[in-house]
């Protein structure tokens, strides 16, 4: 029989990791200062109990109870994998003011418009404030019920009275329960309230969407166990100076965990953007040097993006500037060195400014080739338009330090997206072990190049290169 330990136990408030002695850093999640004393553990013998429901063969379990239902917001359904699964618990986190409440109010209204009862619980606003926003965004429906509560017991009472098929809670950091210690938003309170909502959702077959806050570092606030408890974790991203928003799945038990949905904040509320490619490109009456288009991948979704570059004489001798916006500064510095050493383009005494269009933030290595072509185009004052002077050209590929071009994942999908958008030419890396060639894919002329100098020769307009 196990014996109770007389030593105090310590546990991590972030992930629940325990240890018999205090340490400054959690051994599981590596968080500093999160290990606190929890008291001596009580070890007792667990007695056998008869199961309330007998185990059954897995093939005999009905799959009809988990059939997906569309929310009415196509981009959100795309991220969820085809709709909401009954009994699923979804955590949506994002920075303040990004539009979490606006999005979920729209989801609740469209869900209720289909005749499905919905309960929207707000702990941060009054019912009148929510009604004002609903009137502005036209998010009103007869089956949409509204409650302003912060007590978990009262919220469970509302669930029993309304019997909704969808519960939206805004937000989990405002809810408290008398069964747990600590203030609202604390680790214990958030863990207990989340666990209670998960139990109710599974028992009643009710889908639950929970709004969560984020820390200054951009991670989800609260204990790490909260992310393990829920079925789906979504991140709502966006620049406050831009209306473009993205919903990104980081965990999904019922679908892909690398999908994104695109939205735009407008005066009438949140608007879906099924084809966001035009948001990250500019329109020029004529071909302009220093610009190059590429196709990036957000999860499994190809998106068109434009890289712009400006190369001028250095304002301060022997101290040229390298300014970037939307792309990684380290990668631009590396590409500048490769251009100077491998392509013989003198950039040592020149200022280089590189930016994306539309506030896009690109971390995809496939943007290397487009960035290098944009810098070379600006340095030589020759537009990126292909050998025949065509203006509809995209460049896709990663650039190595030796000046070689490397293939990137999803290249066929990127090429297909460029063809769908009406481009004439695509410059891509050649396949390993094969000779560069030219071919056509769905009316798109594909030029394979092995090195960066070859891509510059093919990509810039005829003339001085």
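Q: What amino acid sequence fits the structure above?
A:
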């Amino acid at each position: 029989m196990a014996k109770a330990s007389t030593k105090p136990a310590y546990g991590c408030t972030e992930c629940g990791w325990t240890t018999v002695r205090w340490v400054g850093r959690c051994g599981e999640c590596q968080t500093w200062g999160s290990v606190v004393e929890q008291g001596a553990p009580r070890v007792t013998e667990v007695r056998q109990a008869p199961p309330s429901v007998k185990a059954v063969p897995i093939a005999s379990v009905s799959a009809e109870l988990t059939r997906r239902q569309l929310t009415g917001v196509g981009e959100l359904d795309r991220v969820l994998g085809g709709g909401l699964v009954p009994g699923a618990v979804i955590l949506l986190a994002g920075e303040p003011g990004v539009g979490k409440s606006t999005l979920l109010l729209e989801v609740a209204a469209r869900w209720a418009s289909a005749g499905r009862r919905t309960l929207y619980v707000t702990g941060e606003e009054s019912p009148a404030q929510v009604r004002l926003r609903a009137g502005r965004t036209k998010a009103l429906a007869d089956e949409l019920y509204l409650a302003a509560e912060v007590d978990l017991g009262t919220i469970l009472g509302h669930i029993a009275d309304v019997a909704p098929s969808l519960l939206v809670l805004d937000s989990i950091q405002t809810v408290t329960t008398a069964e747990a210690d600590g203030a609202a938003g604390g680790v214990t309170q958030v863990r207990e309230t989340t666990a209670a909502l998960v139990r109710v959702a599974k028992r009643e077959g009710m889908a639950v969407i929970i709004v969560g806050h984020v820390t200054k570092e951009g991670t989800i606030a609260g204990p790490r166990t909260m992310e393990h408890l829920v079925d789906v974790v979504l991140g709502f991203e966006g620049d406050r100076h831009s209306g473009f928003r993205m919903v990104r799945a980081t965990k999904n038990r019922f679908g892909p965990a690398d999908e994104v949905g695109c939205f735009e904040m407008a005066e009438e509320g949140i608007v879906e953007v099924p084809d966001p490619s035009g948001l990250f490109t500019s329109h020029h009456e004529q071909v302009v040097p220093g610009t190059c288009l590429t196709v990036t991948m957000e999860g499994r979704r190809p998106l068109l993006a434009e890289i712009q570059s400006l190369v001028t004489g250095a304002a301060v001798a022997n101290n040229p500037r390298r300014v970037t916006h939307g792309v990684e500064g380290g990668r631009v510095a590396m590409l500048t060195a490769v251009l100077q050493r491998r392509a013989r383009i003198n950039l040592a005494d020149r200022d280089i400014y590189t930016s994306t269009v539309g506030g896009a933030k690109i971390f995809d290595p496939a943007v290397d080739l487009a960035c290098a072509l944009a810098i070379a185009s600006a340095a030589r004052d020759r537009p990126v338009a292909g050998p025949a002077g065509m203006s509809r050209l995209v460049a896709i590929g990663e650039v190595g330090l030796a000046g070689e071009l490397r293939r990137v994942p999803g290249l066929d999908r990127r090429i297909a997206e460029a063809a769908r958008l009406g481009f004439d030419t695509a410059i891509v890396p050649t396949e390993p072990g094969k000779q560069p060639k030219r071919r056509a894919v769905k009316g798109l002329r594909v030029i394979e190049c092995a090195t960066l100098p070859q891509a510059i020769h093919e990509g810039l307009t005829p003339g001085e290169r």
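Q: And what stands out in the fold?
A: The first strand starts at residue 9 and ends at 12.
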